Amino acid sequence: MSDRTHDRTHDRADRRRALGSRWLGIGLATLVAVVTLGLGLTGRLNLYISPESIWFACAAAVVTIAGAIWSFALPLGEEGDHGHDHGHAVADSSEHPDAAPSPRRTLALAGTVTGGVVASGVVIAALVLPPASLSVELAMSRVGEQTALFAGADDVTLGVADTSTFGVGDWASVFATATNTAAYDGKTVTLTGFVTPTDADGVNLTRLVITHCVIDAQPATLPVTIDAGEYSTGQWVQVDGTVKADVDGSLHVEPTTVTAIDEPRDPYEY
Predict the structure, then answer these.
(1) Where exactly are the structural domains of the chain?
(2) What's the CATH number for 138-269?
(3) pTM of the predicted protein model
């Protein structure tokens, strides 16, 4: 192979590596930023993160896109040049152009390619697939986990009497921690959630409560006196009724009306 042909082959390999590095870096980051802004502008970003975090995510996306635009000013491959003297390495490479790559380099390359394919698939799926809530899937996968203490638990333990603004998460804290359950007997509620089964062939009203994003989501469940066969698992309902204290001190919701509804635009509580 002539030196000129070898140089052209080497240049093409360098260009492919530079394109791959740029795609794995700023390319994927830009696509994620575009998806984030699109979801934020259409009001669907709250399917994945809490409303308090949306402004930060959108601001970070704008900064990322600005950085991507600036990166076009850099020649391809320039981002890999850190200003170090690679003369010795270049000399070694030119002296042994056909040397076999070391096992460590081969493994590193395989890991990079695998990670790139997975990351690219995730980003492309985010672009192609419509955003959807993970409420029912997450809740059913975590059936049997210990009930977490949700936002509002501090108010409950302090004995705040106004429960009119309580959601499923707040009431789940009351049901789990209240020592004087009679104090809540007869409280009226209007709650929205989806139907999930219980171990005793009963029905729970369930809602996912998130702090930052769906990764930290915890299911909040309330026992409701509903015929187990009346609604399918995952059906969203609005329950109007009262809280009842049983003789053993446990609490449940006794509905006066149960209305099947579509999944709300914001399926989570915070």
Answers:
(1) 3-132, 138-269
(2) 2.40.50
(3) 0.61
